[in-house]
Amino acid sequence: MTVNEHLWDFPHPMTLKVMGKADARLEQVVAEVLNEHLGDTFDAASHIHITPSSKGTYVSVNASIVMQNRDQVAAIYAALNASPHVKVVF
To answer: pLDDT tier at 40 (50, 70, 90 boundaries)?
Structure first.
């Protein structure tokens, strides 16, 4: 992922959306990655919302987070995309 830092104001609040199969441990993966990269500023219980697809095959994990810099954005996207449980991150 290319991040054009000059287009972003940091710190940058955003909602990260991660999709994967409903039977995967997606919520746990997202929480682990965000805890690793955001530290004490992230609380999974209050920042993550789960939405199943209409047929229940997939699930969307939405996380309200605040990115601090370009390197953090790139690291989080890379870690999530590296997980076999993640289908897409946007």
So the answer is: confident
